[in-house]
Write a structure and sequence with these properties.
Blueprint: E1 5-17, E2 26-30, E3 36-42, E4 49-58, E5 61-67, H1 72-76, E6 82-95, E7 100-118, E8 130-143, E9 146-152, E10 157-160, E11 163-164, H2 167-172
Antiparallel strand pairs: 1-6, 2-5, 3-4, 5-8, 6-7, 7-8, 8-9, 9-10, 10-11
Length: 175
């Protein structure tokens, strides 16, 4: 019986570019921050201003790849290049009830375009820390078989915990 399961660490991970295992040398994958797009609301009945989140709409979704050293893959990811990334991770937890480790799969799909590539710095004995920034128009995050969210900006879709926040909006605008 699972009792007192404590999430501990990402045991290991891999990132794939367009299905290929070309991302060796990628040191870190920073996922996009899911910030709601907001509108400033003020007027009669409101004592001041409110930043009202626009349901199902998200601000810029930036993902960032940090590279140990430049690779043939990292240096071809320049501004405007379209990318499709699959990130897989193993989430390690410890089950205090059974005194055993447990593992869940974590999967992130990102599609977008490269906004910038910073080649990094040259310093003897250190990593170059080059970075690639991607503007994402699509993201899907799952743990095991459970889909946590799927955001498709061009498809006008935002599913969070199984609820499509834009379903009624699509109907209302004839989609």
């Amino acid at each position: 019986m699972s009792v007192n399961v404590i999430p501990e660490v990402v045991n290991d991970m891999r990132v794939y570019l367009s299905g290929a295992d070309d991302m060796i040398g990628c040191k870190e994958f920073k996922m996009p921050k899911l910030d709601a797009l907001k509108a400033n609301v003020e007027g009669i009945g409101i004592a001041g201003k409110i930043d009202a989140p626009i349901e199902g709409h998200f601000d810029s979704l930036e993902a960032e790849l940090t590279w140990q050293l430049p690779t043939k893959t990292s240096t071809r990811l320049v501004a405007g290049t379209t990318v499709s990334l699959d990130a897989y991770a193993d989430l390690q937890s410890y089950d205090g009830g059974s005194s055993a480790y447990s593992h869940d799969s974590y999967h992130v799909v990102v599609r977008g375009r490269v906004k910038s590539h910073d080649p990094g710095k040259l310093k003897a004995g250190e990593a170059m820390e080059s970075k690639t920034t991607i503007e994402c128009h699509y993201i899907k995050i799952s743990i095991g078989d459970t889909e946590l969210c799927e955001i498709d900006k061009f498809g006008c879709k935002a599913v969070v915990n199984g609820v499509d926040l834009l379903e009624q909006v699509r109907r209302n605008i004839g989609m």
